[in-house]
Amino acid sequence: MMRRVALYLSGLCCAMASAAQDQRLSIELIGVFSGRADPVMLVSDSAQAQAILDSLAVRVASNTTCAMTDLVALSYNGVRLSVTDPVLGNLTVTVRDGCVSNGAIDPDRNLERLAVSTAFRYDDLDAPGGPKPSTYLGCLVPASLHPDIAPCATASVRQEQAVPAPGRIRPSLFTTAPRSATLDGKRTGPQASGLSWSILLP
Question: In which element (H, E) is residue 198 found?
């Protein structure tokens, strides 16, 4: 009896270790940088990997068709899923803007959103200087694809930087229209005057 319990616990420990070291799926964020490798995350949690693989399997098996959008330079261009799985086999697919590279539709970008949100839970293995938390990529990927994870912390800073730099200021005289007019068209009431300021940008 004790031997059976020991064998069971040994098997359970091995299964847990295997689950923690899942190697079936890696996710690559395409095109966000120039001059360095795209960020890559290995999904080591079996449950999270399986959720993405199940979603991918449904799309791969579907008969729907779509045309993938063109790449945009120095911009987020979807995810590349690299799979080594007993069911799906070895394959690499791109998911972008509601389309999978095999021609299948990704309704409402659900697979892409799941992949991106999952990727942000792991380190970028190809970050310069070694693996680092993927949160630093938050501003490079549309927030709609990771609404609950890694928000863009510099959004307010970017908004401030969008304000035009001050230029030369030129004053000019102005007068206001009379406050009222009579039935015969004659204007009555005081007329104000003053200065207005206009900014001449360089």
Answer: strand 193-200
Instruction: Tell me the backbone φ, ψ of residue 94, rounded to 5 degrees.
Output: -105, 140
Q: What is the pTM of this model?
A: 0.66
Query: Which tokens belong to 62?
Result: 């579907």
The two three-digit tokens of residue 35, written as one number = 């001059």
- Express each pLDDT in 52-111 by its tens digit: 999 999 999 988 889 999 999 889 999 999 999 999 999 999 999 999 999 999 999 999
Residues 101 and 104: their CA atoms lie apart, in Å, by 7
- CA 194 to mean position of chain CA atoms: 50
Token pair in block for residue 21: 């070291």
- Measured distance CA(31)–CA(28) in Å, rounded: 9
Tokens 């799979």 — which residue? 83
